[in-house]
Amino acid sequence: MQPADIAAQDRLIVALDLPGVTEAEAMIARLGDSVSFYKIGYQLAYAGGLPLAQQLAKSGKKVFVDLKLHDIGNTVARGVESVAKLGATFLTVHAYPQTMKAAVEARAGSGLKILAVTVLTSYDDGDLHAAGYRLNVSDLVEARAQQAQVLGVDGLVSSPEEAAALRKIVGHQMHLVTPGIRPAGAATGDQKRIMTPARAIAAGADYLVVGRPVTEAADPKAAADAIQAEIEQALA
Ligand SMILES: O=C(O)c1cc(=O)[nH]c(=O)n1[C@@H]1O[C@H](COP(=O)(O)O)[C@@H](O)[C@H]1O
């Protein structure tokens, strides 16, 4: 799918990083028609969130299952097959060649798309060096993007800071999904590589993943609407 084909409203993915299904359902009800794409990650998935993912997909919402898989190939493949049955649109794996290869093979024939997480948005060069890497963030993101493209991965997760460079490498063949989104004035929290929604879209991001700036806002629907308006303006 080319970026131009993505409905503007689907470009905002709200991360349901909430303690349980009750809280998630309340948030989904509050957000109503403002949000069409939800992400279910560690916190909610381990608290009964996977049946909710299936239910949301059946109800017509799009779902991103963010499990950031990374294990031996066989285990990754079997996990991907299970997630494919939920009706989700996206599933994350870490961008290691064995892991990406197993995930891509296992999703064949399903509607599930595999996203490779390049370098987490909470990492800077110092964090990478502390973890034993010699490359800096931008070089490792680009190297992993090239490997992901060769392996047939459907999309990349990176900071919007890398989006323009990644677009040059992968063209429009891969989805660029960017967390690390902070509307002007929003608290940074533990994110280190951040951009506003408008700048992320201008840099070439297809999808923006936003958690706390929406879910912890006094009025989550107003916060989501403001981000949607910023996205639409940036696309115009
Ligand atoms: O895979 C992700 O979605 C992800 C990758 C990454 O590099 N950084 C990152 O923040 N995320 C997720 O994106 C969401 C960002 O949440 P906020 O920082 O609250 O907006 C969280 O659910 C993270 O798990």
Walkthrough of the structure:
With 236 residues, the protein is α/β, with parallel strands linked by helices. It has one domain (3-235): Alpha-Beta Barrel (TIM Barrel), CATH 3.20.20.70. The protein has helices at residues 21-31, 42-58, 73-84, 97-107, 125-130, 137-151, 163-170, 197-203, 212-215, 220-235, and strands spanning 12-15, 37-40, 62-69, 90-94, 113-117, 155-157, 175-178, 207-210. Strands 1-2-3-4-5-6-7-8 form an 8-stranded parallel beta barrel, surrounded by 7 helices. β3 (62-69), α3 and β4 form a beta-alpha-beta unit. α3 (73-84) packs parallel to α4 (97-107), α6 (137-151) runs parallel beside α7 and α8 runs parallel beside α10. The radius of gyration is 17 Å and the shape is globular. Residues 15, 17, 41, 66, 92, 117, 120-121, 157, 179-180, 189, 191, 209-213 line the site of orotidine-5'-monophosphate (OMP). InterPro entries: Aldolase_TIM, OMPdecase, OMPdecase_AS, OMPdecase_bac, OMPdeCOase_dom, RibuloseP-bd_barrel. Pathway: Pyrimidine metabolism; UMP biosynthesis via de novo pathway; UMP from orotate: step 2/2. The active site is at 66 (for ompdecase activity), 68 (for ompdecase activity), 68 (proton donor), 71 (for ompdecase activity). This is Orotidine 5'-phosphate decarboxylase.
